[in-house]
Each structure stands twice: as structure tokens, then as C-alpha cells.
Amino acid sequence: MNTERHVGAGKSAAPLTRADVERLQKNTRHPAKLDLHLQNLQHIDLSYMDLQGANLQGADLRAANLRGTNLSGAHLQGANLSEADLDGADLSRARLGENEANRVKLHHTKLSYATLTGLDLRGFDLTELDLRNADLNGTDLRGAILREADLQGADLSTALLNGPELRGAILHRLQRGVLG
User: Fold this and answer.
1) pTM of the predicted protein model
2) What residues have CB less than 8 Å from 54, skipping those under 6 apart?
3) How far is C-alpha 102 from the geometric centre of its chain's CA atoms?
4) Residue 177's pLDDT is what?
5) How would you write the chain as a 3-class SS string?
6) In the prediction, which pLDDT does 1 show?
7) Cα–Cα distance measured from residue 128 to residue 148, given in angstroms and rounded to the nearest whole number
8) pLDDT tens per residue across span 71-106
9) Residues 6+ apart with CB under 8 A from 28
10) Could you give the CA distance from residue 71 to residue 43 in angstroms, rounded to a whole number?
């Protein structure tokens, strides 16, 4: 009986393991070629892995440990990041949008140059995040805590900004039309 699962080609029923992802990664020449779109990655520990440029569109990453993971340039549109731990992860130049992200942990996450359009970040604690040059158009930041966040060059022109906490935030060189 063949018990080996075929992974990396569409939605997986059983959650993949770190060993599965490492095997797939080994078969690709560059992390950007890693295709994990629509995969079931619930509760997976991918901490401190190099997943730069990986395709994680529509992946189920609920409660995943992505602490310290290099996700720079990754495609995460439509991925479910609810309860995921992204503390210290590098998501610079990553593309996010239409994501589920309830209770996601983002402490010390790098999001510079990331595309974060249309996200619901109401009430999120985004303290000290690196959001330099990030595209936050259409993102709901009402009631978000952006204390000491670096927003230099960020595009917030169509973001919803009623009542965010901006104490100590770095706001130099924001895109035009921001904050009134």
C-alpha cells in the first residue's frame, strides 16, 4: 500500500508537516519556486525557515508557527493567518490581501515595502512595526495601535484611519493625502 502523500499540487486534505515542506523545498532550486498555494498548513512549525518568494496564496496557515521565518516577497493573498505567530518574521515586499488574520501575532515583524491592501486590521497592536513604504490602501486601521511604528513612505491614501494610536510613530514622508 502506498502511504506517501502527493504534496505541492493543489489543496491538501491532511495538514502538511515541516518535513513535507522541507522535501518540497529541496526539490526546488530557489525558495521563490516553492508552491504551497491552497495547502493545509494548520499548526505547522515553519519557524526560521527561508520561504522567500514562496507561493502561499489561499494556504490555510491557522495557528502556524512562522516566528522568524523569511517570507520576504512571498505571495500570501487570501491565506488564512488567524492565530499564526509571525513574531520577528520578515514579510518585506510580501503580498497580502483578503486575508483572515484574527489574533495573528506580529511583534517585531518586518513589513517594509509589503502590499497590505484591503486588510482588516481594526484594533490590531502594530506597535514598533517596520511599515516603511508599505502599501496600506484600503486597509482598515480603525482603532489600531501604531505606537512607534515606522510609517515613512507608507501609502495610506485610502486606508481607514479613524482613531488609530500614533504616539511616537514615525510619519515622515508619508504619501500624499494621508491624515487629512
Assistant:
1) 0.87
2) 31, 32, 34, 35, 36, 71, 74, 75
3) 12
4) 47
5) CCCCCCCCCCCCCCCCCHHHHHHHHHCCCCHHHCECCCCECCCCECCCCECCCCECCCCECCCCECCCCECCCCECCCCECCCCECCCCECCCCEEECCECCCCECCCCECCCCEEECCECCCCECCCCECCCCECCCCECCCCECCCCECCCCECCCCECCCCECCCCECCCCCCCCCC
6) 30
7) 5
8) 999 999 999 999 999 999 999 999 999 888 888 999
9) 34
10) 17
| For range 165-177, the mean pLDDT | 73
User: Which residue carries 497590505 as its cell?
Assistant: 116
Task: Tell me the residue length of the chain.
Answer: 180
Give the three cell numbers for residue 143: 482603532
**Cα separation values, 87 from 48, 110, 111, 114, Å:** 11, 9, 12, 16
Rounding to the nearest 10 degrees, give the CA dihedral for residues 53, 6, 101, 90.
Answer: -30
Tell me the sheet residues that pair with 80.
60, 100
